[in-house]
Amino acid sequence: MIAQPEPKQAVMARRDAIIAGLRKLVPETGVIGDPLRLKPYETDGLSAYRQVPLAVVLPETTEQVAAVMAFCHREGVRVVPRGAGTSLSGGALPMADSVVVGLMRMNRILDIDYADRCAVVQAGVTNIGITQAVQAEGFFYAPDPSSQLACMIGGNVNMNSGGAHCLRYGVTANNLLGLRMVTVDGEILDIGGAHLDAAGYDWLGLMTGSEGMLAVVTEVTVRILRSPEGARAMLAAFKANEIAGACVDAIIGSGIIPVALEFMDRPAIHACEAFAHAGYPLDAEAMLIIEVEGSIAEQDYMLDRIRDICNRFDPVSIKVSQSAEESLAIWKGRKGAFGAVGRISPDYLCMDGTIPTSRLAEVLGRIGEMSAACGLQVANIFHAGDGNLHPLIMFDANDPSSFHKAERFGADILKLCVEVGGCLTGEHGVGVEKRDLMGVQFSEIELEQQRRVKSAFDPQWLLNPSKVFPLKPELPRAA
Amino acid sequence: MSIIAPTDAAGVVAAIRAAHDAATPLAICGNASKSGLLRPVQAANTLSTSGIAGITLYSPQELILAAGPGTRVADLAQAVAAKGQHLISEPPDLSAFYGNATPGTLGGMVATNLSGPRRVMWGATRDHVMGVVAVNGSGEQIHSGGRVLKNVTGLDLCKLLTGSHGTLAVMTEITLKVLPVPERRGTLVLKGLDPARAVAALSCALGSPYAVSGAAHLPAAMATQVPALAWIGDSVTLARIEDFAPAVAYRTERLRAELAEFGAVELLDDAASVAAWAAIRDVTPMVSDPGAVWRVSVRPSAGPAVIAALSQAFDARWFMDWGGGLLWIAGPATAATHQAVIAAAGQGAWTLMRAPESLRAAVPVIPPEAPALARIARKVKAAFDPRSILNPGRMVAGL
Prior knowledge:
Largest sheet of chain B: 6 strands, antiparallel
CATH topology of the largest domain in chain B: Uridine Diphospho-n-acetylenolpyruvylglucosamine Reductase, domain 3
Oligomer: heterodimer
Helix content of chain B: 25-40%
Strand content of chain B: 15-25%
Radius of gyration of chain B: 21 Å
Shape of chain B: globular
Largest interface: A-B, 95 and 83 residues
Number of strands of chain A: 19
Number of domains of chain B: 3
Helix content of chain A: 25-40%
Mean pLDDT of chain B: 97
């Protein structure tokens, strides 16, 4: 079990009074205190860690969130904000003495402005819900995390979510214009707006990726973009990871930035093919999915150039999609990668480091050695354009030693990412999962600097306090 | 008044520790090419990062460039151009605008978070700062981000330091994302539109599938200040497309057809495009304007109303970038004019970009924050700079 801060006994003892107080602030069905009904909130997308909270509150307006925050602040109650609960790093894991503020009832789209290319949505609107609301007019919201059907924009803001297309369109931080948020003591603040650049400190940038530690986001102004005329994918398979990596370098070096550039290693190809029957080449060691956008003629022009480059790297096979259906088939395996690995292994851990792309082959080689040494299989999926590596470590949760081995393997991979010049997390966030590894990437002075910034927003550390920073001052040393 | 110009991070640490121990404020700058921006700083000593110059890492295939803050932006641009790449946000060179012979540095570019026309499609300078190494006001070295393009490890202090005008920490190394230079540029030109029609046309262009990377409108009086546009002899509304040559040819033709309802559309070729957008980027039309200059960021469709209100209030000279979302305004350097700009900007953000020191010292130069946010801002400042020695009062009086 993951270490948590000591529950505040004074809060635990006043559980009933706190729940009664919350009931005065939101509609009757918006407060959950019944232990059975609290159960679904005990975990998020990182289901290895569980803790039932003191209570859950489901506000419907920013004003209700403000009232809840003011109340919890007065009572000294810790608060864990939660969207859809899809965090893969345990960002929404409750504490025993915490109130979970769930934003899922705040699911309305408040304004869409096509002329100014922005939309104002509540924090509980799903990522895909924004695109669905604007696609009839030919627009879309760019960041597309794998969980986009379920995950909510408030969570995307707090984790600075990425996706497969961020090589071209950027991550969440690059697609926001403004926030409405509630401070720990219940003040409603607006930052940014429908304009591009604010003056003053970049609160929008600081809030994005702050993992629920600085304020509770209730409304988000996002940029919406006009969809390209079309998009098409191709698949190129190679005899070695090194060769595929060199091909990625050559594509980018030629001045082409595809909208997506995904890499899969041999185990990932096999797992995805068995699951999706996407026609992936089983005789290859590594495979790239490359997507370009534009008119048909523009797609042809780019894909021809990319194919010429791929052909210089002795490919096992190249398949250029000729239609939207073929593109979908090429993506089907990749998008189903998590399900595919779930099919061949009872459980898996999805890691999320970033490495300099030039170190890819070396890092995959060392991950292979670690895998052999610990006896756990791993499949690697890699956003090759931006260096974001997702090793999927397969284990059996029914065997505690297997889980602990998987955790250690994962930590070793992340230390390796930092060692080669990368970082612990590219898009999933630190949460509780990587909290105790922060000392690998940051000195104690740097962690203290970040903690002081949190304290500026939340002096008593009531907002999601067990996340991101190691609980204890003794930090793991760099490998 | 002494100027300290260390040549490495250790020198910055030493200078800040000394200032911290003595509680003596430091004016922080690079080449001080933008010292005419925001409020004047009262400090006995100046700490310049101009001596920490040079590229420390450039990996074109990883789209990553790191350099010392004293590196001239022009030198960086040249270095990446040699590998067919560019600085994504099209940062302006404001040396002529401020009447300085000194060129701007990377540190100044990041500390001010100023971006050029391409910001409308490709993001601001802050969107492409991947890593910083800096020294806080206690003389402690900190880093945030790194040399990879995707990183959500810990609080994003890169974004907080970008645009903080040297008030939180002094950067000693900065890592940027760079991108390949598009093969070709083409700019569509509409003539004689009023501000409302111009913004409508630009909204149409920016809302098209053709990835418009520049969208500006200059009244005739401003256009005549730009040699690449003066020949047109009227107000100009410009939409730029940058891409591979066949894509530029195709997209400009398609967009020309879509903009036909706004009048005849002409095309600037590659060279004229480069010259015109460089002038818009560097605020060239206002270089010789005798007045004060404001930069106002608003919802694009609100741009024409702001212009109308200001034209009522005073003899406003102006032009628009970012599809109407960025207004450059020149007018008399008086407190009354300043109030008029603030009133017209409404919900938007405004910055007093250039004015006599007396005016910049007397008025708020950026919008005051709501009280609760201002309290947080003071605590964040103290979290980095507990003795308030780094560029005190540069952005806000007393901060």
